[in-house]
Amino acid sequence: MAFIPQLENTFREISNAENALAMAKYMKNHFSFFGIKTTERRNVFKEIWKANKAEVSENARAIALELYTKEQRELHYCAIEILIKELKGNYKKEDILLIEKLLTTNSWWDSVDTISKYLLGQYLVEFPDAIPDTVAFFSNSNNMWLNRSAILFQLGYKQKTDFELLKTICIQHQNASEFFIQKAIGWALREYAKTNSEAVKQFVLVNNLKPLSRKEALKNLPDA
């Protein structure tokens, strides 16, 4: 397959060591970077993807998994973006295993948040019958990133949000000491408040959320 070598070689050619150090530092040095800024990375990636369109489309899952084994973070981003485009409307029931693997591999907020909203969220739109078991498994997991994904997967649902489900997950994790869980609860509630602010205010009022979760949930509701 030509796509991955071509992508890696091109990224290596346009890499920027100074940017790479800054990017790695921003991500707490969890990952190495080529040092390619987002706009340039996406423009280059788009052209290489276009030149290898058939290969990527026919092998999207395998290509994404291989990209996820690479060292540089930009290649992980490319993997996620490929799946967002190629799998929409074409998910298979077993793709939940792929999504779980991505959520628990090279995990940090930047990848997990995108996967939660655009992959897990879309998968569960296409397989709504899988919501109860999937959310229960992710929310009860010992893996914090799976917990976070269960809280965040409805971020794009707006009026289709199952608020009862969201409340249940938030209550389950409301005493968590983990920053990323407290933040996720607040973010999910703040997002739903754009659709139903009164419901969110009432929920926050009657539940003993952590200060960070409460602050984030009510951030855009000045009268709360």
Automatic annotation (TrEMBL):
<dbReference type="InterPro" id="IPR014825">
    <property type="entry name" value="DNA_alkylation"/>
</dbReference>
<protein>
    <recommendedName>
        <fullName>DNA alkylation repair protein</fullName>
    </recommendedName>
</protein>
<dbReference type="InterPro" id="IPR016024">
    <property type="entry name" value="ARM-type_fold"/>
</dbReference>
<dbReference type="Pfam" id="PF08713">
    <property type="entry name" value="DNA_alkylation"/>
</dbReference>
